[in-house]
Amino acid sequence: MAVQGQRRAYSDRRIQDRSYVYGNTARQLDVRRAIREPEHRENHAVRRNREKAAHMNPGYVLFLATALIAAGVILIGYIRLQSELTNSIKHISVLESQLNDLRLSNDEEYSRIESSVNLDEIKRIAIEELGMTYPSEGQIVTYSAEGSDYVRQIADIPEK
After folding, report:
1. Cα gap 20→31, rounded to integer Å
2. Range scoring the smallest mean pLDDT among 8-12, 98-102, 128-132
3. Which residues of 89-104 are buried (b: 16+ CB within 10 A; e: fewer)?
C-alpha cells in the first residue's frame, strides 16, 4: 500500500506540473516540501580541502613572499635595463646629430678652401718666382704598386 501511495503522489505531482495556469498570477511554490528536503550536503573531503585552502601555513606564506620578492627584483632589473637602453639610444642620437653637424661644417670648410685656391696663380708663382719647370722625359720614374694604395720608399730614388 505504501508503494501505491508513492505512485499516487508522483502522478499528482506530474499532473500539477503539466497544468496550465490561467491569468497573470504565478504558481505558488511548495514551500513545505523545500523545507522538508535537506539541501545538498558537501562531501567530508571537499569540506576538509576548503578548510585547508582557507588556512595558509607559514611555509606557504614564506614561499609566496619569496616568489613576490624575486618577481619584484626581476621586474625592477628589467625596468632599469629598459631605462638604460632608452638613455643609450638618446645619447646615440645626440652623437649622430653632432657627427652630422661636424660633417656639414667640414664639407663647407673644404668647399670654401677649394674655392679660395686659384690653381693658375699657384702655377704662375711656381714658374716665375720660384723657377720651377715641368719635368723632362728622363726625369719621370714610374713605380708599380702591387695591390697596395701607397708606395713605401725603401731606398733613395736613383738620379740620372
Report:
1. 20
2. 8-12
3. eeeeeeeeeeeeeeee
- Cα separation, 7 vs 1, whole angstroms: 10
**Nearest-angstrom CA–CA distance, 119 and 127:** 12
pTM for this structure? 0.41
Q: Tell me the pLDDT band of 38, cut-offs 50, 70 and 90.
A: low
Cβ atoms of 99 and 105 closer than 8 Å:
no
Cell of 78: 628589467
Report DSSP state, residue 83: H
Stretch (H or E) spanning 57: none
Cβ atoms of 157 and 141 within 8 Å: the answer is yes
* SS3 state of residue 7: helix
User: In the 8-state DSSP scheme, what is residue 28?
Assistant: P
The single residue listed with the C-alpha cell 726625369 is 139
Half-sphere exposure (Cβ direction) of 154: Cα atoms closer than 13 Å: 1
Greater confidence (102 vs 41) lies with: 102
* Residue 82 exposed, middle or buried by CB count within 10 Å (0-12, 13-18, 19+): exposed
Q: Which amino acid is located at 32 in the chain?
A: R
